[in-house]
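Quick question: what would this complex look like in 3D?
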Amino acid sequence: MDISNRSLALILLVALAVSLFGTFTALNKIQKLGITGAATSDTGTATLNISTTQSITFTTNSVDWGTGGINTTAGYTTCDLYTDGTSNSAGCYGFNTVTQGLVIENNGNQVITNLALRSNVSATQFIGTGAVFEWKLSNNEANSCPGGNLSDTTWTAVSTTDKTICTYFDYVDSQDTLKVDLHVQIPYTASSGIRQAKLTATILS
Amino acid sequence: MQEDLSRKTVIVLVILVALVSFLGTWTVLTEVNKLTAQQKHTTTATVKLNIQPPIGKLGATQNKPLNVQPKATGMATFEIIKPPQN
């Protein structure tokens, strides 16, 4: 039996409606960011399936000491720059005073058990022979990485390979940020020019 | 009895359904990709400074020439004259 064109049109309109409904439903669920699969029945049971997400971001992602150098007039041979509130050393001239270190946030919804940090350059590669380039980790919000889970809590030379810095990085909004302070020591022998280093934080597990 | 729809109308509807289905799929995939992109497993930050040459002379490590008068060198000749003897 042949189907009439009218019947075919009716089927196509139904297909069109189903397609639109499917698209809007999918978009609606995606917008809920991770909450999927809500279901109800006549017994009043609701099921929620919350997917886990691991994600990090540098919420403060730049340190710029500007332009300056070493004042050797008084016999200084080095200039020390910090981000932890320590003043630039007396041997410095011109550089900005930076009082805010880098900040990493766990913006996912799962504890990160292995957070690693690395620099793309060593002190020598960054500044030159005799230079110092160090980081120091701390909880930007209390208990973000509690107890002994946080390492490099004193000035430590940067690592150019992934180094575990936290083994319990919490995701709760009030305690999910770590601070990375930096210290650079420039010797008077360093050649002049613009220097840039890149720090990368990675979730290893 | 109602007149059946033309073949042209059916074809238009088929094209419309295909188009809507394609656009819907594309939109959903785009949104899913955005969602995936928001989940970052690595993040980067930059550290910058611009080093200028040192100012001033470093310490007292330079040689400073002293203004020293050359010593007088030469020869003095003395002639001892014996007094006349009586």
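Answer marked as accepted. The longest helix of chain B spans residues 7-38.
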